[in-house]
Queue: 3 jobs
Job 1
Amino acid sequence: MKSLRRYALVLTRDAAAADDLVQETLTRAIARADTWQPGSDLRPWLFRIMHNAHVSDLRRARTRNDAAPDLPRPVTPETQHDRVELRQVLEALDSLPEAQRTPIVLIALREMSYAEAAHVLGVPLGTFMSRLGRGREALRRLVGGRCASARKNGLPSGKTRKEGRP
């Protein structure tokens, strides 16, 4: 183990990355134990596995870096606050009655039109719109008036702070 760790430190020049490489090496060695020849020296076999794992990691990192300029950038970076708000909204959505939750999910997450969603639920469009409105209002109350505060901040109705950011 000490020899593997020293070699990993030489390859990666980072203690945490070296520990990860040693773990990956041992994981691969255990998974491929049937390829080791009993009676042969175990060290060269483990070092070869480590070297190949390191080269694979370097290739993977190079591929990611080469592809990075072509990938779209996120509109806004996700923050801890955003995660907490999302969790609160999802918990509030789960607490709604099914008749109010389903219309919101069909419109917001499935991106259906009002007519399509009403058809899926097998209810008239007016009934669907009523359930959707009651569900949205209940969700606003449960989340603590987030939409009302968005309107105070000058955002259009139905827009969240994240959508309203430049």
Job 2
Amino acid sequence: MDPAPLRRDLVRAASLAALAPALPVAAQPAAAPAAAPTLRVNGAVHDLAGLDPRTTLLDWLRERLDLTGAKKGCNEGACGACTVLLDGRRVNACLVLAATLDGRSVTTVEGLARADGTLHPVQQAFIDHDAFQCGYCTPGQVVSAVACITEGHAGSEAEIREWMSGNLCRCAAYPQITAAVQDAAARMARGEA
């Protein structure tokens, strides 16, 4: 068993270290500058540098990118009016801080249509089934419906209602929304997406 080092041994070691000549330090390669944080929105890459870390994804989309499809309803994640796809999964944009999304991908309702202007099957089904009234919740409903179908939760009316329950429609267009989701799921199954 080694005895505990004495104080004088510690002082001697520290003194010797202080008296030792400075050794040359090998030149270190300069670190590469950190890449600016970015976020891909509807296929386009956007710089997040200088973003206030308290800014929500919803506010950033609406105020910085002028993508106003996602609506600010409750601003606490209860209504679904701000639903967007984050890496293909639906999220309430009012609950996500934009600064945390470096390297991620967001799709808003504006990014669902094809480049030639052809509407996504869900967008077309919402029109065909008159699945909106005032229209305020419609963008969030459409984005959530896309996710509902791609997640495989559009097998029955009951399943659609369950998996779309995070999106509120204050005008109560739920029967039309359910019919639109069923129709869009069939269109997508036929390859119309």
Job 3
Amino acid sequence: MKNKTIVFLLGVFVSLTAVGCKDETVPKPKSHLRLEYPSAQYKTYSISGAGCGYEFEVNEFSKIKTKADCSMEIQYPKMKATVYLNYKNVNNNIDQLLRDAQKLTYEHVIKADDIAEQPFVNPEHKTYGMFYQVGGNAATNAQFYVTDSTRHFLVGSVYFYAKPNYDSILPAAAYIKNDMRKIMESVKWK
């Protein structure tokens, strides 16, 4: 009786092994979330008051919230991000404003993999500045400042309302980074 049970169990085991090993198991290929955003359409946005006058081109996809001090928030609700533009008057303090703008960027060096600086010069519109790309899981991945060196100073930075995971926000970050570059390059002082 023992031998029959052993032979039966051995037969069942061999049968299951033979049936279960016909198809080779293949791991699923890596996939990426496909995020598509509308093509950027830009319009001129102008702000003036209390000694600050400037205009720039902004993506029509965004929503603008102005503040009393000539600063503003450019919101991207579908991407859960906001570009903060902070305006300052230059009153013989350009060195301090430049240090503050650079300090804001380099505070992210702890989480950043790298920080790339790209100078910007447009003598026609008297705008000069720097665009920073921050790589890695920093709180912001793009910042800039632009100035005429005598009266106006504008700083911009983007923040996402999510845990900073660069791979996850990369499509949205690239889209907004292009918009920020457009803002910086299209600034005209009044």
